[in-house]
Write a structure and sequence with these properties.
CATH topology: Deoxyribonuclease I, Chain A
Radius of gyration: 14 Å
Number of domains: 1
Largest sheet: 4 strands, mixed
Strand content: 35-45%
Number of strands: 7
CATH class: Alpha Beta
Distance between the termini: 26 Å
Helix content: 10-25%
Mean pLDDT: 87
Shape: flat
Low-confidence stretches: none
């Protein structure tokens, strides 16, 4: 599984993914950028995982699936946190609500949190 935060891409297509991933079997989900900022991309190897759900929220891309070899369910939350303080607070509040809903599966929250 690979994630990209602030891709700055309005459209992600098969050609763009192939240039990043190569010829290996894969699928992907993305959230387009707004203007020159934001944009999220998550790519996965379809021979290792099955993804059954991809949900997009403002600055958040949630991927739900299962690891084929272990039949273990997982959730990947790909995040791009903008720099504005108020937007950060709102996003952290929303993220905590999302995370609480997935306490029964393996969970990975990754991304660019724009924090030092």
């Amino acid at each position: 599984m690979a994630t990209n935060q602030e891709s700055k891409l309005r459209v992600v297509d098969d050609l763009a993914i192939k240039s990043l991933w190569g010829d290996a079997l894969c699928d992907y989900s993305y959230q387009p950028s707004v203007g020159a900022s934001g944009g999220l991309v998550t790519v996965w190897d379809t021979s290792y995982v099955i993804v059954w759900s991809s949900m997009s929220y403002e600055h958040v891309l949630v991927i739900k699936g299962m690891v084929i070899s272990s039949a273990e369910d997982f959730v990947i939350i790909n995040v791009y946190v903008p720099c504005e303080t108020m937007t950060k607070r709102e996003l952290w509040y929303r993220l905590s609500s999302i995370i609480v809903n997935y306490m029964d599966v393996s969970l990975c929250v990754c991304g660019n949190f724009n924090a030092v």
